[in-house]
Hints:
The structure is a single chain. The protein is mainly alpha-helical. Helix 2 crosses helix 3, helix 4 crosses helix 6 and helix 5 packs across helix 6.
Amino acid sequence: MRLTNYSDYALRSLIYLAIKPEPHLLANISDISISYNISRSHLTKIIHQLGQLGYIDSVRGKNGGIRLALAPKDINLGVLIKKIEPDFNLVECFSTDLLITPKPVNSKNAVNASSSNEEASAKDLSLTLIDETANNVKSGCVISPVCQLKQVFFEALTAFISVLERYTLADIISNESELAELLFYRNTVAQVLK
């Protein structure tokens, strides 16, 4: 599975805000954009959504800016990704429209994914497999109605999300000084060279 640049930039923005050397001062989108060398206009949309979701506080006005609205330990990566990633449709037979509980794959090598954490993650994902027999839903794949590969993908996606749900923003900024050196030193050098 590959996350979109949108999710990547959202995570990077939260990292930046979490390790800012002067947490009492507000950051701005331009600072984040320069530090990561990413588009300011694209970042503006991301910051806006993070604000709507309650991850970032925005202060308007001449001296305005942004800051984390939550402590890093309270920002769960799996929950965040599920909120901002546009879809988890790994294959065309995944959908958010119709609910079909995935059946375990009958294979000696298949892992039984019946742990309560994985089941909870699967329910929270709001993604399901399409039932091609319901409402005349048609997939481009002729074997889709009986294919067990989509169930393997569903299990893999559930495992992916489960791993993300075990971590918070605090976990990924444990090397704060190294991150700060790369982000803020580079930003300072870029401003001096202008």
